[in-house]
Amino acid sequence: LASASLAAAVLASVGAGAAPAEPGARAPGGPRFTAGADGAGDPYFPRAGNGGYDVSHYDLDIDYEPPTATVPPTPLAQIRGRLDGVATIDLVARQDLDRFNLDLRGMTVSALTINGKRATGIAPPADGAEVEGAAYWHVQDAAARQWELTVQPRPKLKAGQSARVVVTYGGETTRPTDIEGALYGWVTTRDGAMVVGEPEGSMTWYPVSDHPRDKATYSFEITVPAGKTAVANGLPDGDPVTAGGRTTWSWEAPDQQASYLTTASVGDFVQRPVTMSASGVPILDFVDSKIAGNALAATNASLALQPRMIDFFESRFGAYPFNSFGSIVDNDSVGYALETQTRPVYSSSAGQGTVAHELAHQWLGNAVSPDEWRHIWLNEGWATYAAWMWTEENGGTTAQQAFANWYAPARTPAYWALPIADPGALGLFATQVYNRGAGTLHALRTKVGDEVFFAATREWLRRYDDSTGTTDDFIAVFEEESGQDLSAFFHTWLFAPEKPTSW
Ligand code: ARG
Ligand code: ZN
């Protein structure tokens, strides 16, 4: 009981609970055409994503100039690149739309068309004020973490209607940080950029509905100084083309993808020979030519294991969900690796456990994504547990031993107090989300048995493929597959503010 009320208090304190009514929803008797919501309704990041429409495809045409080298070198915090983009966004209206928003941070829009019709850029009008004709305006308030580009289409969009929005934009690139102060988004490096958008950092480099609920397909044309390599998601769309000292790299990502998993990293990368899983998944690796010594040896060893890792995870989770895999290993660092779809990004070097973790995310996190950010344990607990499984498969510590190594040591009450299935926006990447999350999955496996555990996992991946799921959805699948009431189990492991002692 004490634990239930604490979990309830934490829920209340982060403003979780029932999702707020979509502000743009049509009121009975109200106007037919209304504004789409300025957020997807996620209590952790209220203005990430947008309401009133779904994006089907982003075509990103980006021209990038990395920082110029200076002597003495400019301090890292002050380096700047230059990005110029044309984003072509195909979307479908989900309500009769008078206006709708995109998220865009730190860039300036110079032109915008909707279905070929030019909109006028104007200063943000007062709330509720009428605006004449097709128009756009951009509110950027870093203190409020509010970055909203509003588009007023004329004619207005009817529910079900598709529209093409073309946004021409650009600006200096910096080293943006998330709510916790970690680098993310388009992170300018001395030789290019590391592009890692979790949870809502993709808005730093293209106009986007920046929430996993609005998945879309992507194509990319990234133009960089000749000699630099630009790597995005999916597969190359033809060979790079060089003209006038600049090279254009084209990529095609035809699978549904959450915006935080988009990358277009730029650097002195050298492509390795393509390898393949037994099932035929092509593996495209790009390693920074400046990586040397132990970092290079470790990276090479990990990358060589990727085909076998895919074979192993396919035997447990089912077919690899996308058209390709592979790694981007940058000598620069953002302090972590990210499971960018089909092509994770690594900082400084790629360790074996990290590669297994980011590969497992392709199923658990990328094919099936969190419906709201509070469900992050379904990403990080799972990827951590899958890496335990890989270590066992590869002759190391068993998953059972890894569980015991996590479970046995004494830890502080604060460690156990965090409800990992609702850790708060500042707790998304807390160690408990990873390790108690993995412990939860191991305890669940012990409780229901291997056969049910893996059958339910495959059912989870089948049912929510190309989509998103919640913790409740996950529990429901395991209850169905096991025929057991698992509510007490999951309450103890995910919410109770103390060390779980039963499973
Ligand atoms: N999802 C990443 C992983 O594989 C971690 C991302 C950390 N991001 C951050 N902004 N701190 O573990
Ligand atoms: Zn992870």
Written description of the protein model:
With 503 residues, the chain is α+β, with helices and mostly antiparallel strands. Helices cover 26% and strands 28% of the residues. A hairpin with a 2-residue loop joins strand 16 (241-243) and strand 17. Helix 5 crosses helix 7 (431-448) and helix 7 (431-448) runs antiparallel to helix 10. It binds arginine and zinc ion. Zinc ion (ZN) is lined by residues 339, 357, 361, 379-380, 383. Zinc ion is lined by residues 339, 357, 361, 379-380, 383.
Which key features would you list for this structure?
503 residues; alpha+beta; nine-stranded mixed sheet; five-stranded mixed sheet; disordered N terminus; binds arginine; binds zinc ion; metal-binding; Peptidase_M1_dom
Pairing-aware structural class of the strands and helices? alpha+beta
Sheet bearing the most strands, described?
Answer: 9 strands, mixed
What portion of residues is helical? 25-40%
Rough outline: globular
Bound molecules: arginine, zinc ion
Helical element count?
10
Mean pLDDT: 95
Domain Peptidase M1 membrane alanine aminopeptidase: 348-493
Keywords: Hydrolase, Metal-binding, Metalloprotease, Protease, Signal, Zinc
InterPro entries: Aminopeptidase_N-like_N, Aminopeptidase_N-like_N_sf, Peptidase_M1, Peptidase_M1_aminopeptidases, Peptidase_M1_dom, Peptidase_M4/M1_CTD_sf
Protein name: Aminopeptidase N
